[in-house]
Automatic annotation (TrEMBL):
<protein>
    <recommendedName>
        <fullName>Riboflavin synthase</fullName>
        <ecNumber>2.5.1.9</ecNumber>
    </recommendedName>
</protein>
<dbReference type="Pfam" id="PF00677">
    <property type="entry name" value="Lum_binding"/>
</dbReference>
<feature type="domain" description="Lumazine-binding">
    <location>
        <begin position="1"/>
        <end position="92"/>
    </location>
</feature>
<dbReference type="InterPro" id="IPR017938">
    <property type="entry name" value="Riboflavin_synthase-like_b-brl"/>
</dbReference>
<comment type="pathway">
    <text>Cofactor biosynthesis; riboflavin biosynthesis; riboflavin from 2-hydroxy-3-oxobutyl phosphate and 5-amino-6-(D-ribitylamino)uracil: step 2/2.</text>
</comment>
<dbReference type="InterPro" id="IPR026017">
    <property type="entry name" value="Lumazine-bd_dom"/>
</dbReference>
<feature type="repeat" description="Lumazine-binding">
    <location>
        <begin position="1"/>
        <end position="92"/>
    </location>
</feature>
<dbReference type="InterPro" id="IPR001783">
    <property type="entry name" value="Lumazine-bd"/>
</dbReference>
<dbReference type="GO" id="GO:0009231">
    <property type="term" value="P:riboflavin biosynthetic process"/>
</dbReference>
<dbReference type="InterPro" id="IPR023366">
    <property type="entry name" value="ATP_synth_asu-like_sf"/>
</dbReference>
<keyword id="KW-0686">Riboflavin biosynthesis</keyword>
<feature type="repeat" description="Lumazine-binding">
    <location>
        <begin position="93"/>
        <end position="189"/>
    </location>
</feature>
<keyword id="KW-0808">Transferase</keyword>
<comment type="function">
    <text>Catalyzes the dismutation of two molecules of 6,7-dimethyl-8-ribityllumazine, resulting in the formation of riboflavin and 5-amino-6-(D-ribitylamino)uracil.</text>
</comment>
<feature type="domain" description="Lumazine-binding">
    <location>
        <begin position="93"/>
        <end position="189"/>
    </location>
</feature>
<keyword id="KW-0677">Repeat</keyword>
<dbReference type="GO" id="GO:0004746">
    <property type="term" value="F:riboflavin synthase activity"/>
</dbReference>
Amino acid sequence: MFTGIVEEQGSLKSSEENGLVIRAQQILHDVEVKDSVAVDGTCLTVTEKGADWFRVDTMPETLRRTRLGSLKPGDSVNLERSLLANGRIGGHMVQGHIEACAPILSTQTDGIGLDVIIALPPELQGYIIPKGFVALNGVSLTVVDVWSDRFSISLIPYTRQQTNLGEAHAGMLLNVESDILGRYVANFLQTTRSSLQV
């Protein structure tokens, strides 16, 4: 479990057939082999580590669902260690289970904010709602507005400085995870309706 509060921007050191090697500093001081780390919001298991790097395995499903397979050496990735049981939830409950990859459609400055419009994957319609939570590249954000085929968020300067969302531009792919609580509620209502119609 994660909270969507990025601790560090790492960078991709190398891609392997079944894994990634990532450069990092801050998160490595207490990360051990077998620990979970969110890499751009994707929950992955540390399989090896060095003084300034760690390695994670990547399954084919991980590469199909996320933007990780499109990254090149040197690309920035958001990193977060898993939440301690006594830790503060600064964002929202994030599983690290990416549901879809979606492109940024446009960006526009609005005062100190950067408004970002993102394509809404059809399978996530109904799960992303105005003023609800969404995790993009592992960053906990509030949805501003939603339309039939897109949604918007607004990035404060701190988020742009501390995460790779500071690189936001049209065409950039983002890992998307909708709010798990909303998904449970929607699934429960759908199941309840189905059972009542039988």
